[in-house]
Amino acid sequence: MADVLPQLRRNGQWILPQVDSIQIGHRWGVTTADAGLGVPLQRKPLQGEPFPLSFVVHFDTPEAVHWWHYWHMAQTKFAQRRFAARLLFPNGWRYCVCQFTQAPEQVENRSYWLVMRLSVEVLADFATEEELHG
């Protein structure tokens, strides 16, 4: 299934996030119980469980900005569809299957410059691109 996913790639090159912008997980972890009273119980995501992550990507030419809008609109169906991305984890670069948890957030925008924060859940990650497609 991963081989038919839209990929966060332009002209054959992976669009890499700003390394210092990647935030793995939420500072409070995963909510396990919330009865509506007091503080909900929290824990870290388990092995193999989707975990939240956010990162920033830059588009610095009019063509790249246009590509982003097309990719977001047509490829991910306005963030409704899962996609593949290459992300940096503490153990190195990984190829990930992601789904948006909220609409992409525009951090900065000029006619030739666009900075977007993407909040996603990582559903699966692989060491090689071949594993992603296999």
Our count of domains comes out at 1
Q: What would the principal axes of the Cα set say about the shape?
A: globular
Classification by helices and strands: mainly beta
Number of strands: 10
Could you give the order of the helices and strands? EEEEEEHEEEEH
* Low-pLDDT sequence parts: none
- How far apart lie the N and C ends? 8 Å
Mean pLDDT: 85
List the total number of helices.
2
Fraction of helical residues: 10-25%
Sheet of most strands? 6 strands, antiparallel
Radius of gyration: 16 Å
Give the DSSP E fraction (strand runs of 2 or more residues): 35-45%
Salient structural properties:
134 residues; mainly beta; six-stranded antiparallel sheet; 2 helices; 14% helix
Explained architecture:
This protein has 134 residues and is mainly β. The protein has 2 helices and 10 strands, in the order ββββββαββββα. Strands 3, 6, 7, 8, 9 and 10 form a 6-stranded antiparallel sheet that branches. The termini are close together. The chain has helices at residues 62-75, 129-133; strands spanning 9-10, 13-14, 23-24, 30-33, 41-43, 51-59, 83-89, 92-100, 105-110, 113-126. The chain has one domain.
